[in-house]
Structures are given as C-alpha cells and as structure tokens.
Amino acid sequence: MKTFYIETFGCQMNAHDSEKVVGTLVGRGYSQVQTPDAAGLVLYNTCSIRDKAEQKVFHRLQQFKREAGKGKVFGVLGCVAQQEGEKIFERAPHVSLVCGSASYTKLSELLFQIESGERRVTGLSLDTEETFETPLTRRDNPHRAYLTIIEGCDKSCAYCVVPFTRGPERSRTAESVLAEVRQLVDMGYTEVQFLGQNVNSYRDPTRPGIDFAALMRLAGQVPGLRRLRFTTSHPRDFVQEIVDAIDENPVLCNHVHLPVQSGSDSVLARMRRLYTRDEYMRRIEWIKRSHRDIAITTDIIVGFPGETESEFQSTLSLMDMVEYESMFSFKYSPRPNTSALTLDDHVPEEEKTRRLTIVQEKQRAIQIRRNSEMVGRVQEVMVEGFNQGTGQWIGRTSQHRTLNFTAPVERSPLAGSYLDVRVTRSSPNSLAGEMLTL
Ligand code: 5AD
Ligand code: SF4
Prior knowledge:
Elements: E1 3-8, H1 12-27, E2 31-32, E3 41-46, H2 51-63, E4 73-77, H3 78-84, H4 87-91, E5 95-99, H5 107-115, E6 121-123, E7 144-148, E8 150-151, H6 162-166, E9 170-171, H7 174-186, E10 191-195, H8 212-219, E11 227-231, H9 240-248, E12 255-257, H10 265-270, H11 277-289, E13 295-302, H12 309-322, E14 326-331, H13 349-372, E15 378-387, E16 392-397, E17 402-406, E18 418-426, E19 431-435
Parallel strand pairs: 1-2, 1-3, 3-4, 4-5, 5-6, 7-10, 10-11, 12-13, 13-14, 17-19
Antiparallel strand pairs: 8-9, 15-16, 15-18, 16-17, 18-19
Helix pairs in contact: 8-9, 12-13
The structure holds 5'-deoxyadenosine (5AD) and iron/sulfur cluster (SF4).
C-alpha cells in the first residue's frame, strides 16, 4: 500500500496547500499515516519566512539521513523548496522531490515520475499564471474551510522572501471562487476563510470590475454561509469599501489583520512598504469608524536594519494609538534574495531581543486591558471542540477571539454549532464565559 506522511510549517496558505497536496495524493491511491516511520513517502511542506523556520526542515531531514536507500522517499515542498531548489539535494542527498507551491499543478505528474523510479524530480518554475485548486482538497477542519482566492505577491518588501517563493500575483475568477463557496456550504461548512498573500489586490482576471470588496459582498450573500473571513491584507491596497462591505453584512467577520511592520516612516520607507504611518492610521480610522466592533490585529518586525531607538519608539507609540486586539511580533531575520540584505547597520541580536520583549510586554498589557473590557458582553461563538483538561468548550468569536465556556451537561453543544456566550472572565490571550441558556 502506498502511504505518506506530511508535516506542515508556516502560514495558513501553507496549511491549505497541504490540504490540496493531501487530496492529490489520496487521489493517486496513497493513504495518509500519522508518523514518518509508518510512511513510504515523507513530505515536509516548508516555510522560509525567517531563518528559524527554514532550519526546521533541515533538522527533520537530518533525523532520517540513515533511512536513505531503504525505500523511503523524501520530498520537500513549499517555500524552502522554491528558495533552495536543487541545493536541497546537496544538503540532504536522500531527498527525491523538491517542489515549490507554484508547481503544485504538476505534483501528480512529479509523483508519477517518482513512482516510476526516478531518483530526483523538481518542480521549481515560478513563471506561472496558474493557481492550484483541486476538487480533491482534503480539508482538516469539518466546519471552517480555507479557500485560496489569490496566489503569489507582486510587492517587494525589502525583508520578504514570499515574492521569490510563491511567485507573481494571480487571482482566480470570481465565478470559480463563488462556485466553491456554494459547494463548501452544500458540504456542510458554515465558515469560509479567503486566503492570499495580499487578498486586497484581488481582481477577477475575466471581469476586472470585481475587486476584493465586490467578491466579499458576493460571497457574503451565499445562502447558508454564516461566517466569511480573509487573510492577509496589505495596507496599501486596503480600501474603505472593504470596511463598508463588513458594515453591511454580519456574515463578514468583524476582524481585519492589517500588518503594519513598523510605526516609523523612515523604517517603512526602507522596508519599501509603500505607505506612511499617516496613511496606515487613516485605514485604522476607517475601521474604527465602522458601526461594527471590528477587531484589528497586526504583525510587527523589530530590529530592521538601521532601526534607531527613536524609530523603535515610533512603533511603540503606534501600538498605543491603535491598541491591537492581538499581534504577531518578530525579530528581523535576513533572508536570501531580499533587498534588505544590501542595507548596512544591522541591529545586534541582543538589541533585537530587548526590543521584541518590550513590544510583547506592551502588547500583553494592551490585551489585558482590552480583553477585560469584554467581560459582561454576550458574543456569538462557533463551537470548535471540547477541552478535556479544563472541562470547557472552545469557542471562536467573529472577531477571531478564543472564548472558552461552560455549558450545562444536558445542553452539551455540538462542535460546529453557533451559540451565545456571556463573557465572565478575561486573560491576556483569551476569554472565558458561560453559554446562555435562555
Ligand atoms: N524577518 C522577520 N519577520 C518577517 N516577516 C516577514 N519576513 C520577515 C523577516 N525577514 C514577518 C512579517 C510578516 C509576517 C508573516 O512575518 O511581519 O507580516
Ligand atoms: Fe512561510 Fe511566507 Fe511561505 Fe507562508 S508564504 S510558508 S509564511 S514563507
């Protein structure tokens, strides 16, 4: 029997790519197993956004060095595959397949070559107008479905590998996206999350009048859909119409992830982010003026080359102004092919660590305050499951907050159902409450 094991690193785009890869493999007669030891084919779907992420796959491969020649086949997929290409065969000679996400349409063909005994096969072309969608996609979550609407990225942020690992931007047609949303609802999914490196620059290739806001409006009307989310946004392409669309239709979740990266104009210019602090804050004002309580989350990089103490302070002051619901923060990590490599004046590692700690402590204080404001309020949650350890149900609000709650035994909720919960307690990273039983 043909068996495979897959481990996924990185972002939601990668998680969803793996669902498509799993579907492709199952379609070729493979069955998925839960450990690399039990598998004939071992796949790593990799991330190269920071050096640490990239090193993980090489550690994994190292562990299996001795398996080479014993009939087990190893494959590296995703961003490290695209970035390192055939060099992976040198570093890990037992690898047979190296394939970037822009070549997944050819995956079935590549697998056929491996099955026919070829020792090394690659899918590394970035020159593509294709997007990879397959009716075979095997989604992990039975209630919330990821759906790719746009792939690749045409921006050139100075620190970022993504344009090199995922290729040029290409949108799917609105017709195919909407058909899939309908199909997902028919299959029982009630929440759909649109995915893309920069969903805001979505434009239907066949009907250019349909931009991202228009697509959201159309998808939000699909009968039976309870929640529609999207990630991730580039502030430059984030327009007022997106907030208007959220305002108009409660199916569109009240959450916007709007990565700012830095609060300093000079750092933003060096990062080539294509917006100023003021322009970013204008978008925050649009969001805050909405009659819905839209949660705003972000990504921040500290220690970008040349970041001075006063530039760093600008990031802290922006955090005070926005008061994000949550945040991912990172130390700048130099990446291959990126233009930031040519900038001088790298910030010492200890200083990056110090700044990261300051950002994270500040954010923790903001979250403690903001989450405590939720106590007493009633929120609708989608039930994600039950935590045996705490005896609580796990719920997710439209704002994408975790709201754990208790329910009377005789009214045990079903995973995937929606219900109202009164928030009774808050902690820095989540809320707790009780199911309303009226
Ligand atoms: N170093 C550190 N963080 C990075 N990110 C992207 N590239 C780098 C890098 N070279 C962060 C950004 C982005 C998030 C997904 O990862 O904040 O929004
Ligand atoms: Fe990692 Fe970026 Fe690739 Fe996602 S797109 S897997 S975050 S490098």
